[in-house]
Amino acid sequence: MSRRVLLKLSGEAIGPAGGLGIDAAAIRYVAAELAGAVAEGAGVAVVLGAGNLVRGRDLRAAPIARSDADRIGMLGTIMNGVALRGALAEAGVPAALFTATPIQGVGEAFDVRRAVDAITAGGVAILAGGTGHPYFTTDTAAALRALELGAQALLKGTKVDGVYSADPVSDSGAVRYDRLSFDEVLARGLAVMDQTAVALCRENRLPIVVFDLFEPGNVARAVRGEPIGTTVGEAR
Fold first, then answer.
1. What are phi and psi of 174, to 5 degrees?
2. Sign of the C-alpha dihedral, residues 193, 81, 127, 75?
3. Mean pLDDT of the 180-186 span
4. Which of 50, 98, 52, 107 lies closest to 73, judged by CA?
């Protein structure tokens, strides 16, 4: 088997443009990208956000405690996990759904050994429910799970082709970086992942690769370790 990786995706990756819900074409595209990586022998785990359904932070203005708002967001990631499992099954890829908060008949409680068994058997492990605790983002959950599974890299699929000095959509002078150190990302406050996730990766020397999810074949390229997007790692 080639490298073992964890792929972090936002909920928007499988949602309709500018709206809420799950888009059939988008989730089939993601499933096909994962199928391509698995076909090459990669060991793949996936952590999904839930921004296409609900964001815990958007509920904080309502009369809902922060901890409960975060739990609602975590439940949204489990809903996305169920949908992705179905899309992978349609693509002919076995997938197991593990959740930080087990829900009988939906997903089993996250267990490192069982998740590793799922990916070494040629399937995809979908890891939902965040860390199971409020106040932590799905970025941090992705970093934590990647380390628990012994992944060689944490991949983050986005709508842009790497990390920029500014938003490339609104700033035509934004510069794309091929490589950054963990310290540079933290010091500059670059939008790679949240700072807790980046610090966790830095402490454990786990590289982060940020790449364009919507270029067909890029998931397999990232898994192979080809030089795409931006790599965040130790200083040279």
1. -65, 140
2. positive
3. 95
4. 50
> Residue 37 in contact with residue 78, Cβ under 8 Å?
no
Of 110-114, 118-122, 190-194, which gets the smallest average pLDDT? 190-194
Q: Indicate whether this model's pTM tops 0.90.
A: yes
Dihedral in degrees, nearest 10, Cα atoms 214, 7, 19, 194: -110
DSSP state of 16: P
What is d(CA 130, CA 99) in angstroms, rounded to the nearest whole number?
Answer: 8
- CA–CA distance, 198 with 185 (Å, rounded to integer): 8
Per-residue CA distances from 183 to 135, 154, 204 (Å): 23, 17, 13
**H or E element at residue 24:** helix 24-39
Q: In terms of C-beta distances under 8 Å and separation of at least 24 residues, what long-range contacts does 93-97 make, across chains too?
A: 93/31, 93/34, 93/35, 93/38, 93/123, 93/124, 94/118, 94/121, 94/122, 94/123, 94/124, 95/123, 95/124, 95/125, 95/126, 96/123, 96/124, 96/125, 96/126, 97/126, 97/128
| Structural domain boundaries, residue 219 | 4-233
Distance, CA of 31 to chain centre: 13
What is the mean pLDDT of the segment spanning 83-106? 96
Contact, 208 vs 154, CB < 8 A?
yes
199: amino acid identity, one letter: A
Looking at the 3D structure of the chain, how many domains does it have?
A: 1
Residue 123 sits in a domain whose CATH number is: 3.40.1160.10
How does pLDDT run across 48-66, given as a tens digit for each residue? 999 999 876 677 667 888 8
Helices (H) and strands (E) in the chain, counts: 7, 11
